[in-house]
Amino acid sequence: xxxxxxxxxxxxxxxxxxxxxxxxxxxxxxxxxxxxxxxxxxxxxxxxxxxxxxxxxxxxxxxxxxxxxxxxxxxxxxxxxxxxxxxxxxxxxxxxxxxxxxxxxxxxxxxxxxxxxxxxxxxxxxxxxxxxxxxxxxxxxxxxxxxxxxxxxxxxxxxxxxxxxxxxxxxxxxxxxxxxxxxxxxxxxxxxxxxxxxxxxxxxxxxxxxxxxxxxxxxxxxxxxxxxxxxxxxxxxxxxxxxxxxxxxxxxxxxx
Length: 256
Prior knowledge:
This protein is of the alpha/beta class. The chain has helices at about 25-35, 35-40, 70-80, 85, 95-100, 120-140, 180-185, 210-230, and strands spanning about 10-15, 45-50, 150-155, 185-195, 200-205. The protein has eight helices and five strands. The chain has a five-stranded mixed beta sheet with strand order 2-1-3-5-4, covered by helices on one side.
């Protein structure tokens, strides 16, 4: 539910080590940190967490079980969609995806891996459930007082924006990912204004497993304050505005 008061009384975790630009610029990080005031304006408290207050900067996790989950996922998708070949897609094996020359170099695989067994797949599922529980405990006990946080805030970008592919294994700008994918927990991303060069920036909120609705509500409450202050959504100037028409052709009576 979209609630303008969704941030009231909430504790938002802040991990100092993730707010550092590896490329040495500061404009984007400074603007992102300044945008945190909208959480406070909406009734939330920013709570420092992580190693600086005796905790950890990431949810503790053991090494994962063996198996190439990405390739196995593609194999199962291909197995369950024989119509891909009939529709002309040249995606017949996981290699066609992982090793595609259309992918930029630093995300392109160079070899295939063996299929996972049913036991290996189940072990991965069990591991993921364990990671969700560990992440919940990490958030439940965060902060110097150990009272926990409702969500953890991360920057989206860390530096000025240039091109997407820096060449080889070198990124062309600093980007911050949350630990959501590895732990099976949600992240919501939302606009937070712009940096000193006028480039749009965003923030991210990480939550516990199945907290998706709570995160969306908190992001909505943030955006209301940010938009009112001129620090929210930034409309692009490089493309024309999209037209919007209510209704659709399948609706009885036609569109409007």
